[in-house]
C-alpha cells in the first residue's frame, strides 16, 4: 500500500514537471511570437501577445506592454496604464522597467516630475542589475 502511494506521488510529480516545462516552452514561444510581431511593426498582434502573457505575470511581457501603452502602439495611448504595467514588471525584477520608470519620473514625461520617485526606481534598477549582471548590459546601448 505504501509503495503504491509513493509510486502515485512520483508519477504525479513527473506529470506536474512535464506540464510546467511544456507551459514554460509555450510561454517562450508566445513571447517570441509577440516580439517577432513587434519587430515586424504589427503592433496590434504584439499587443495581443504581450497582454496575454502579462496577465500571467510574464515580466518581460509586462515591460513590453507598458511601453506599447506609453507610445500608443497597437493600443490607444494610455500613460497611466503603461506606467502601471511598468511598475508591475519593475516590482517583479525587470531592470528595464525600473530604469524606464526612473527616466519617466526624472523627465516628468506623462507624470509630475518627481526626483524622489525617480531615484527610487533608478536605485531599484541598480539593485536588479547587480543581481542579474547581464540584463542591464543587454538593455543599454
Radius of gyration equals 19 Å
CATH superfamily: Tetratricopeptide repeat domain
In CATH, the topology is named Serine Threonine Protein Phosphatase 5, Tetratricopeptide repeat
Our estimate of the beta-strand percent is under 5%
- Terminal Cα span: 62 Å
List keywords for this structure.
141 residues; mainly alpha; Serine Threonine Protein Phosphatase 5, Tetratricopeptide repeat; 7 helices
Please describe what this structure looks like.
- It is a single chain.
- With 141 residues, the chain is mainly α.
- The protein has a single domain (2-139), classed as Tetratricopeptide repeat domain (Serine Threonine Protein Phosphatase 5, Tetratricopeptide repeat, Alpha Horseshoe).
- The protein contains seven helices and no strands.
- The protein has helices spanning 2-39, 43-54, 59-71, 79-91, 95-107, 115-131, 133-139.
- It is globular, with a radius of gyration of 19 Å.
- Mean pLDDT is 84; it is low at 4-9 and 15-24.
Amino acid at each position: 500500500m505504501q509503495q503504491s502511494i509513493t509510486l502515485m506521488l512520483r508519477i504525479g510529480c513527473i506529470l506536474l514537471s512535464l506540464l510546467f516545462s511544456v507551459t514554460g516552452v509555450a510561454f517562450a514561444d508566445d513571447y517570441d511570437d509577440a516580439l517577432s510581431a513587434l519587430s515586424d511593426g504589427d503592433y496590434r498582434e504584439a499587443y495581443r501577445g504581450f497582454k496575454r502573457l502579462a496577465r500571467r505575470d510574464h515580466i518581460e511581457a509586462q515591460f513590453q506592454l507598458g511601453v506599447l501603452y506609453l507610445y500608443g502602439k497597437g493600443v490607444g495611448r494610455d500613460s497611466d496604464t503603461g506606467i502601471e504595467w511598468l511598475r508591475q514588471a519593475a516590482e517583479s525584477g525587470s531592470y528595464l522597467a525600473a530604469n524606464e520608470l526612473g527616466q519617466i519620473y526624472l523627465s516628468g514625461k506623462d507624470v509630475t516630475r518627481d526626483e524622489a520617485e525617480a531615484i527610487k526606481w533608478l536605485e531599484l534598477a541598480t539593485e536588479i542589475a547587480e543581481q542579474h549582471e547581464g540584463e542591464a548590459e543587454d538593455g543599454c546601448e
